[in-house]
Design a protein that fits this description.
Layout lengths: L4 E2 L1 H8 L4 E4 L13 H15 L3 E8 L2 E4 L14 E3 L4 H6 L4 E4 L1 H11 L3 E3 L10 H4 L4 H8 L3 E4 L8 H10 L4 E4 L18 E3 L2 H13 L5 E4 L10 H14 L8 H12 L4 H27 L1
Helix pairs in contact: 2-11, 4-6, 8-11, 9-10
The structure holds pseudouridine-5'-monophosphate and manganese (II) ion.
The site of manganese (II) ion has 2 residues, from loops.
Length: 301
Amino acid sequence: MPHIKLSEEVAEALERERPLVGLESTIFSHLGLPSPANQEALARATAAIRSQGAVPAVTAIIDGIPRVGLEESEQESILGPARKTAERDIAVAVAQRWSVGATTVSASLALCAEVGIPVFATGGIGGVHHGSETTGDVSSDLGAISLHSVVTVCAGAKAFLDIPKTLEVLETEAVPVLGYQTDEFPLFYARSAGIPVPARVESAGEVAAILAERIRWDQGGVLLAVPVPENAAIPEHEIRSAIEDALERSHGLRGAEVTPFVLEQIAQITGGRSIPANLALAENNARVAAQVAVEFSKLLG
Ligand code: PSU
Ligand code: MN
């Protein structure tokens, strides 16, 4: 794979067919979480993956080179300022030699699929924004989840999106959406939002079997939604009103400015509780993803 640089550990794990879990880098950069929470999130997510016997593979673009797996000494480079890199940006980032491109879900899935990593963990996926009828703002994450044969483990979509519309687009894109031990699609910071999930699964083994079936049919990816752990969750009514207020304050902002601003406002309104919730769910998703990767490698073995 000459166009992608693998870390030593990831190269060896791929060679030996050990379970691997991909991670994006946008959430760990200043675009996703404030410092030092971003560093803690990365440390906890990678430790959770290792605790299940799997190998973490952080994706990024560094000095114009697509990377899957970063050496310990390189991890710091994604924690600072970075350019947001979606799937369509990979080619631009390489040709223009961007110094640090922080991969979003879509770019990360493209890299995982290219090297053969079947499971990927994130916090929340991108989706359909409120007002998309006029702005057309629908994340390329949805198309990437549909296209690449990888399981994406998330705690829902970015909290301030139009969740019912996001689920409609996933249906249109023929993506199986699975609730992990839940009947509802979780609301990122809250465990439920009263929106039924199309299918419920109870175990990592079931998810692995569904991925195997998708691959057999050459049908692309799977979305697994895992509710935020109970002890870090924010009650639904509270987070809904925080999101409403934050969106109100963001009027006039467009495009890339919106997410960091709204997340910062949500943190303020919740008295900082949205940050530990975000860390807990990222860690939990990484752990469940690793369990799926372990089960999937048993199916292959
Ligand atoms: N969810 C969050 N914060 C984020 C993201 C998701 O709570 O920063 C990032 C992820 O990397 C996701 C990306 O893939 O935002 C989607 O961006 P867009 O909506 O511009 O496609
Ligand atoms: Mn967008």
